[in-house]
Structures are given as structure tokens and as C-alpha cells.
Sequence to fold (422 residues):
Amino acid sequence: MFTTYFIKKYKKKVILGLIKRNFSKLNIIDYIFKLEKEKFNQIVIKKYFMAKLKKISFFIRSNINKKSLLIKIIKKAECKATIYKQKIKLLEAILKVLSKKIFNILIQIPNLPYKKVPLKKDLLIYQNFQLAYKKKLLTHWELGKKFNLFNFANHLAGSGFNIYIDQGAKLQRSLIQYCLDQNINAGYMEYVLPFLVNKNSMFGTGQFPDKKKQMYFLEKDKLYLIPTAEVPLINVFRRSLFKINDLPFKATSFTSCFRREAGSYGLKVKGLNRLHQFDKVEIIEINSDNNSYKSFNDMVRHVKKILSSFNIPFRIINISAKSLGFTSALTYDFEVFSPGQNKWLEVSSVSNCTNFQSHRMGIKFINNDGNKYFCHTLNGSSLAIPRLLAALIENYQFSEYIQIPKVLINYFMENKIYDTYV
Fold:
């Protein structure tokens, strides 16, 4: 979130960044300045009446004991004081309305893209190997049925919800624990978090107002089901003040995630492709403004290392400016190949949100010079479990069994999944 001071100081930079994002409401920039000018004028008028009130109040106090001699003058002064107070109260109400208008506009403005973000098209920056599939392979939903790994919970909660069964549940749990262990070994501190958060938490990480319609809301308690662990995990540090030597701060968490995914249909939502509830292991980093892109590169290398360990096809894409998430200045998507569907599935996004979120949450660090600055926040998936599971069983399928990736054998405690019906 930007301040009006920042927008005014760097107006050209802001407008160019928003144009790169294909932001269609550029007229709101000038409207913000118009409102700010009106607010400034009202403040000037308020100060004028406050000075008048102060002067007349001093006169009344100074002559209160001489009331019998100056009764008419004091009465007149008291009437004026009442009028000034009413005017000041009205001006405060006007200023409150203007401040709210400005705030409601500012929260619509997305983060500015980093200089290395491609303008129009997503840019492929890495692919681990060429695809070579000689025969048609089963999709993960066909494999799920064949090996009794998962089923869909239409009768429990409607479409978009899933039930993992027996070996499917075991494989999912193995993936979660493996990813958590990899994160912890890389220096990320584990947190166990609530799955419900308040409106302020959603606003802090930028889900509001951008993705409000995608959230599940509990009306009675005024709480929202989290769309990702990023929301509660970064909000843990709301109004925190880090010492520069304590940065970067690294944390990880496993949570279920809840998204309405309104407007999704067809093959995009078939099987495990897109669920209303899914499990994900998240990583975040909090760093100084000078070192956040070092953190970004470290996080990208970390996710790349985890995906490489599964020995399946994957690629990394630098997301274009027009496709960036609302809070992100730079995002790399990680996609694994699903041979049964002959398509790529996103399993991770690593994003640098710069100081966009920390402005909303008041997350700062104190430098060696004693000055306080807003931190930069970063988040990434490591990893989104359903699509990863789908890609793994499709890539490791054989006619009679599914091979367990080598790195998961110690977690799964077996090296193959067999058809339980045989």
C-alpha cells in the first residue's frame, strides 16, 4: 500500500508501473491529489478556527472573575466560542470523510512491478528436461479410482472438496512432512497457525479488497477461512520491530487453504486441479529493503531444490506485469508437468511484495544508524500438495503399481502403491 506522499513524490514512476500492469484506473491518481488538496484546505480552515477558539477561550478565562463588569462581552465571547467549536466539529467530520475516501482509493492501487518483470508475456526461465512420453498415460483421477487413493466429497460438501483414502492419505501426509522437513533444515522456523482470521489480517496481506469475493466468511463470528498460510503467518509479525542483525527472518507452516474459485469450470477444476479446500506448505521471509531480492533468489533456489528431488519435469516462469498478483512486485511460478492431462500445473509461486504489506501491518526494522524502516515481505509455496500429488502419481505410474519417489520412501515406508482391490 502506498502513501499519498510516495505517489506525489514518484508520480511518474507510479504511473509507468501501473501502465505496465495494465491498470485501468489511472484517473484515480489525479483524484487522490484533488482530495488531498481539499483535505489540506479544510485543515487550514480548522487551524484558523482553533486559533480563534484558543484566543477567545483565553479571554473568557482571564475575565471570568470580572463577569459582573463585562457580562455582555463575555456572553458574546461564549457564543462565539460555541460557534467555533461547532465549526471545528463539522470540519473534523469533513476531514474524516475525505481521509476515508483517500484511503479507499489507495487500497485499490496494486504494487509496482520490479524492473526484471516482463511486460506482456510470461517468460520461461528454466525447464529441467525435455518431455518424452511414448504412450498415453492415465490421468490422476483415473489413477485415484484405480488405486483407491482419493474420492470426491460431493455428498459431504459439494464439488471442489476431496477425500484422501488409505494410501492416498498416506502419500499426502508424506509429502507434507517431507516439505516441512526440507524447509526446517533450510532454516525456516515452523509455526502452527489458526485457519480462521479476522478482516484486519486479510487486509494486511492484501487479500482485501482484491480477493474478497474468493474468501469463505463466517458471518456470526466475522472471521474468514484462510486462502493460504501467508495470511496468518505474516500477520504474526504485525507491528513488529526487527533488529537488522535478526534479518532475514524465515518461517514455514502447513495449513489447509480455502478458496471459492468462482468462475472455474471444466478441465481446470477436474480431479485435484483446483479445489475449494487444499493443503499447502508455505514459506515466508522478512528482510530489509536492500536484501529482499537476495531472499527472493534464495527462496527460488530452495523450491527448485525440493522439486528437483522428485525427479519429475518442472519449469519456472517469470510472471508478466499484467498477470502479477495484487501485492507482488516480482513472482516466479513453478509448474510441474502432468503427462496424463498433457498440461502444466502450478505448484508454487515465490513472490517479493517489497514493503507493500509491511505498510499495512506496520512491520519495521531498526538499522545500525538507529533509524526505522519498513521491512520487505516475501512468500512462497513449498509446495501446493494436491497438484504435486497429481503430477507425481501420473509421472510414476506403471500398469500394476505407482512407484514412490526415492526421497519419499522413508516417509511413506513403502516403495510402491499397489491396487488394493487386487
